[in-house]
Amino acid sequence: MNSGLSPIEYEITSEIDSNQLLEFNREIAKEVRLSGSTEELRAFEYAKRTLESYGLSTKLTFHDAYISIPGRASLVAGNQDIACITHSMAPSTDVEGLKGTAVYIGEFSEEKLKLVDGRIAVVESIALPEILLQLEASKAIGAIFINGPYTHEMIVSTVWGSPSEENIDSMPKIPVVSINNENGLTLRSLIDQGENDVIFHARVDTKWIKTPTLTAEIRGNEEADHFVLFSGHIDSWHYGAMDNGSANATMMEVARVLSKFQKNMKRSLRFAFWSGHSHGRYSGSQNYCDSHWEEIHENCVMHFYVDSVGGKGATILSESNCMAETKEIAAEYVWKIAEQKFIGSRYGRYADQSFWGAGVPSLFMGMSEQPISADPNSKMVFELFKGKKAGGFGWWWHTVEDTIDKIDPVNLKRDCEIYALSIYKVLMDPIVPINQVAAVKELKKLVDEYWAISSDHIDLGLTQSRLSSLETMLNEIYQHKTKDTLPKEDLKELNQSLIRISRILVPLNYVENDIFDHDPANKTCPLPALSSIRKMSEVEKNSHEFHLIQTSLRRKINKVNYSLKRAIEETEALRIMVNKDQIK
């Protein structure tokens, strides 16, 4: 469609080649790429050679990562063998296997947890770590998940990346297997007939091994130390043509095309290819952040993530992940390329988003999704990804069916065009396109919602006042800032200030714990420091629990207010500089 592209944008999209994308995709997806495997390393080396052929400097490094590869699994119920798979980070059973009484609870709900004590829970769901945690807490001894028509490979730990001494005890403690719908009906029938004694064996190979990370860079010319990070994982479930071969192809094609425009780039573009996404719960990006925290904190302008693009039938582009401050970029190019109005979706805690503690704004996770339909093959995937119109990446996601025939070359080119143009904008705009006003407005809305349910328990007046002051000052700056009115040196300082403001606002909105740590892969609440306000509103006023929450909240409010004070101080200095230049 390419509606309203500028000449340079049109030139970039014209350079993107669907045949080249498919060639990259086929080459990456010709082997199964388990984390740390020889096959995965061959894919890394192919990407390295390819990037170097376009003039990029590359670096292939290795680090120790906690990697978990599912092995053989078997399930017997009522003397019937039932095909199953097990999952990454689940514990293995001992030689005798896990014997127990199966209880069918159907679709998961907290009310049904009372049924699982001392039993093996049978749940209608893809194997999700948050469900497993609750089953463990309710003293289930094992779990059997009924996934739908296909079994979906999953990682069932909430520990982000490789575990530490602080969180190793949070690793899964009960064995897990998954079965498909057909076998689920068999198991349910046996349970209904009273043949509910089952035994399953599961082997999971979990250990520390060396895994690769590949980085490459196109160097900018004016603010070269500032860089955009564009990342995706190479490891895969099965052949992983969509997840994540199509994304790797997109990264290499963006490198090929944008390397031709290097002379125009104000900022640098850094590519990062991870291992340990599928089998290490994002251990590659976690390790990279931990190993380069200060550089990322000080110089990374924005993180673009790419996963599972170009799928057949993937026609919904309006609901990919964004932050409030990065949404405008997505909206511009989703409209220009696909003529769809972008509404965006707030990030959850997934997809190699290891850089929020370092304060880095993020844009995209995947790009295009399947429309929600009555397709029974996709029911479970829809339940996991369901948005307003979007229903995830396809029924073949995380299955043996993720093969090259699931890639549509037209969709792959379209998705690549949006990534290329969005990234190029952040590399090229004289003023980095981070809309801090939108970030503050989102925080204001959240504080208003929290105070509406807690005004007689907690005082958020100072929080609201500081957010309003911050919004006013930022609005003034954004109204005045233009590339034509600021000297080059002041433009650099303005950009540095906008980055420093992100270092305050991103963790405030997305990080629950220490900015140097990594929150677990659980469902997250916006502005997490204040999320316990909801819990306080549900307990009896002046009860023991009420006062415990209230005491904790006072400290967390201090944290929020002090963060906002720092943001105001940074913004005030920026406002003075901008106004000075306006007077000139």
UniProtKB/TrEMBL annotation:
A GO cellular component entry from the record:
extracellular region
Which Pfam families does the protein's record reference? Peptidase_M28 (PF04389)
Q: Which domain of life is it from?
A: Bacteria
Cellular compartment(s): Endoplasmic reticulum; Golgi apparatus; Lysosome; Secreted
Q: Which GO terms describe its molecular function?
A: carboxypeptidase activity; metal ion binding; metallodipeptidase activity
What's the chief localization of this chain?
endoplasmic reticulum
* Residue ranges of the TM segments: none
Where is the Peptidase M28 domain positioned along the sequence?
A: 215-414
Q: Does the keyword Zinc apply?
A: yes
Q: Name one GO biological process term.
A: proteolysis
- UniProt keyword list: Carboxypeptidase, Endoplasmic reticulum, Glycoprotein, Golgi apparatus, Hydrolase, Lysosome, Metal-binding, Metalloprotease, Protease, Secreted, Signal, Zinc, Zymogen
Per UniProt, subunit arrangement is: Homodimer. The monomeric form is inactive while the homodimer is active.
Q: What is this protein called?
A: Carboxypeptidase Q
| Native organism | Neobacillus novalis
